[in-house]
Amino acid sequence: MPNESKAAATGAALGNVDAVIVGAGLAGLYMLHRLRGLGFSARVFEAGADVGGTWYWNRYPGARCDVESMEYSYSFSESLQQEWHWNERYAGQPEILRYVRHVADRFDLRRDIQFETRVTTATFDEGTSRWAIETDRGELVSAQFCIMATGCLSSTQEPQFEGLETFTGDWYHTGRWPHEGVDFTGLRVGVVGTGSSAIQSIPIIAQQAEHLFVFQRTPNYSVPARNAPMDPEYEQRIKAEYDDLRQRERESRAGVVLMGVPEQPALDVTAEERERAYEARWSRGGLGITRAFTDLVINREANDTAAEFVRAKIRATVHDPAVAETLSPHDYPIGTKRLCADTDYYETFNRDNVTLVDVRKAPITRITAGGLCTADAEYALDAIVFAIGFDAMTGALLGVDIRGREGSALREQWTAGPRSYLGLSITGFPNLFTITGPGSPSVLSNMMVSIEQHVDWIADCLAHLRARDLDTIEATVAAQEAWVEHVNDVARATLYPQANSWYMGANIPGKPRVFMPYIGGVGAYREKCDDVAAKGYEGFTLSAQRSALRDQVAR
Ligand code: FAD
Ligand code: NAP
């Protein structure tokens, strides 16, 4: 059915805007703010009932960021960053959500956001050079630009366990937690997974549950967060230095500077010096340990020194040596799966009401009415928490049926893994942008820094096109292929591909194994993007098709 008749069939009006933005998380909100500032009309569609994205959906007990609050915040507004007060060193989900809501209100963003509306298709019309965007409410909007702010970690991996539908207790996914919260008091609870979400929630669930069973397939490296109330002097000092700090973040490797920047290789110093460096970071708390030395993600021997330091901490913390050993990762380098930051995670396994179950040895076979079966035992459970993660980086993008030139489907183009130019743009899909898309530093960085960089680049690009009366921008095949090759080359030079991580798509059965984010560092990446823009959008074709047509008609 042609687009117009579809809209007529549902009775919906066909709106016309300069840009449709999909998603009202941190990326979508800032994109809207920037486009408004430039005088573009924009409409945001958000599947959730409010702003916040990650911080709207992930309300599991203990959900918290592991980049310091002073850095995990927008830098685009000096008054916002000066006036906002963070209560804790690492903000918890409720505080971050309050912050995002505050931003939405402060900049009057809500009037252009339509909530509880999922974008289902986006189709490029080569005749008009516009995108037709359709929602699950039957609306159809025409936009010159389609900007995907759909999030890298917003599409949950659904549990596929046989028999789940027969379970008579309640089950939850950490990424879709009930807004009213869950009280596990007196219940026998199972947590499946030991990634960041599980590691944050397990210590809290253990305090409530009668008994907690943790079903672990792969142990993770975790370091203490050492969260604490915000020190007012520290806050003042950072606020006084914000200009400089933000600039250093933008030029840095991972968009963070407060946890320290590595200066020398681990193997250049003595074992005692290494131990002191790791110990200092362990005591300070946070993810700094893998940033102690420059060679930890490129040299296995160097990496082993940090990995062994954490394993020794696990052995020193967990009383039962067999449990400590099961909790200790051996088969992948530290940092090549997302490092976790916790509060009392390993200590929790000293509690009498907590049992670690190794489902690598005896896999989960099915869920029954009364619990969960592994290959060698049955566990009676009242509730199950699936902390099994996300279809990361591509899941939300491919959740929309995106059709580019000649009706070509993104889902088909990416069957062997995502391919893009700079993680921002895809050949064959003119005027479509992906904020923190695969092929950009995104999840390997403080996402705030990467989001702001992408949004600013896209906003500048749209202003450039408008100023020159250009209609479309599209990545060339050659530029995209060269970028994909570069992203792969850089990844291959590191230890990252040695882990079965979600960075590699390894957590989703059948997903192609491709290292998706760009490891080159946010500073170097920003330089590349700025250079591309400065050279008149090198690697892109800019066209004035419609404008030329308008001129012809006028003549
Ligand atoms: P999101 O916040 O994911 O927002 C995307 C939005 O798009 C969602 O609200 C979704 O509902 C909506 N959407 C998707 N598809 C559609 C569609 N088809 N139609 C309509 N709406 C759609 N990063 C860090 O840098 N530091 C951290 O400490 C950190 N902690 C994290 C903790 C958790 C539990 C998780 C899951 C992620 C964490 N991240 C962290 C990553 C986090 O996702 C980013 O920091 C950031 O919040 C992403 O913002 P976003 O706007 O790009 O995406
Ligand atoms: P995750 O890191 O992908 O962890 C999922 C866990 O579930 C893994 O332990 C995985 O085991 C396990 N699992 C998946 N399928 C399973 C199955 N069929 N049977 C048994 N176990 C299974 O997901 P996440 O914990 O939600 O975290 C995702 C990302 O979100 C993080 O890496 C991080 O970037 C972000 N996050 C950050 C924070 C923070 O502290 N700021 C908190 C939460 C999330 P395998 O490893 O064997 O696959």
Largest sheet: 8 strands, mixed
**Contiguous uncertain segments of 5+ residues:** 1-14
Number of domains: 2
Mean pLDDT metric = 95
N-to-C CA distance: 35 Å
For this structure, the CATH topology of the largest domain is: FAD/NAD(P)-binding domain
Notes on the structure:
- There is one protein chain.
- Strand 4 and strand 5 form a beta hairpin.
- The N terminus is likely disordered.
- The protein has 555 residues and is α/β, with parallel strands linked by helices.
- It has 2 domains: 316 residues, FAD/NAD(P)-binding domain, CATH 3.50.50.60; 223 residues, no CATH class.
- Helix content is 34%, strand content 17%.
- The site of flavin-adenine dinucleotide (FAD) has 37 residues, from helix 2, helix 3 and helix 15.
Features:
alpha/beta, binds NADP nicotinamide-adenine-dinucleotide phosphate, 20 strands, globular, FAD/NAD(P)-binding domain, 555 residues
SSE topology sketch:
Layout lengths: L2 H8 L3 E9 L3 H12 L4 E4 L8 H4 L20 H6 L9 H14 L6 E2 L4 E7 L4 E6 L4 E9 L21 E4 L14 E5 L3 H13 L2 E6 L5 E3 L7 H9 L1 H10 L19 H14 L15 H18 L3 H7 L12 E3 L2 H4 L5 E5 L5 E5 L2 E4 L2 E4 L2 E4 L8 H4 L2 E3 L6 H4 L18 E3 L12 H21 L4 E4 L1 H16 L29 H13 L5 E4 L1 H10 L1
Parallel strand pairs: 1-2, 1-6, 2-3, 4-17, 6-18, 7-16, 8-9, 8-16, 9-12, 10-11
Antiparallel strand pairs: 4-5, 5-6, 13-14, 14-15, 19-20
Helix pairs in contact: 2-15, 10-11, 15-17
This protein binds flavin-adenine dinucleotide and NADP nicotinamide-adenine-dinucleotide phosphate (NAP).
